[in-house]
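Reproducibility note. Readers wishing to regenerate the assembly model reported in the main text can use the exact inputs given here. Chain order matters: entities are listed in the order in which they were concatenated for prediction.
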Amino acid sequence: MESLTDTEIFDLLDGMASEELNQRHQELWRTDERYRQYFDELHTLHQSLRGLSIESPSVGFENTLLHRLEISQREYKLLAISKRTLFLFVGLMMGLMLIGLLLLHDGQSAANHLFVPALENTITYVGLEDIQKVLFLINGLLLLLVCEKLIKKYLELHWRQL
Amino acid sequence: MAGDKTAHRDLVRCHKNFAFTIAYRILNNRQEAEEVAQDAFMQAFAALKDFNKTAKFKTWFYRIVFNAALMAKRRQKPTESMTESHVLAFSIEDTPQNLQRQERSNQIQEALAKLSADDATMITLFYLKEFSLEEMTEITAISSETIKVKLHRARKRLAETLRLQLGAEVKNLY
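Running the prediction on these inputs yields the following structure tokens for the assembly.
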């Protein structure tokens, strides 16, 4: 009778063997001394592996880890605060620019306003288009900065998951 | 916040040993394995809010440990993965059976340390936590058929390593 392959023996040990395989094994076990020895060797190994104990890390593992976690949470909070500050700054800048643009628009129609003449002089000197270009540039830069922060956070999270 | 801390502590207590064991089987270095296990916990805590609640936490977490350990293994210098010797702790209460079992366990640990990271991981996942093939597939991202083949090969290699190891020990006796 043909001996069992290693795969078949492991199937037997894992309890996944078919009835036919079981019968072949029993027959070989009775008649083939070499097979019996080989099967016994794998069987003993299988039993020893099942009884193998799990390793334990050092005693300080848990406390070190929780301490690290505490520090990282503190850093995360600081980062969140700095991010909030950044968004506040961006919002403030945009608000100021909007007010500026509104004033420029109103300044052209309401000539009797107190600081409008001075503002009009400045606009005439620098040029309205130049001011608009500078404002667009600043806004563009701020927008890029915000996008960078958001994309970075998104990529960090997904990188970790991978 | 205090609740978070307790929950984190519970998670660490529940999974630290096995996380460490996986890392240790792959790296064969206790210090590095501890670092990897800690990093894996930190990664898991950071990504916990994005964890898909329908998935099993343990397979998700052990996948992080497995990947972190493999990355550390790639960075590891060859001299760092030398087998660490297991110290036998004898006590008066040790019966001959217990000592024999302990000795056998040490022989297997030594043989496991000589296997490749891949082989050692397969055996560790299958025997120590008794993961099913499906769970092993989730952790290692390898198909169940491949895992089955790898596991069989790993056990065969382990048997061969043990045979060689025991042969050398017997030779040393004479």
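We highlight two features of this model. Residues 85-92 of chain B have pLDDT under 50 and may be disordered. The interface with chain A takes residues 5, 8-9, 12-13, 16-18, 20-21, 24, 30, 33-34, 37-38, 41-43, 45-47, 50, 101, 104-105, 108-109, 123, 127-129, 149, 151-152, 155-156, 158-159, 162-163 of chain B (CB under 8 Å).
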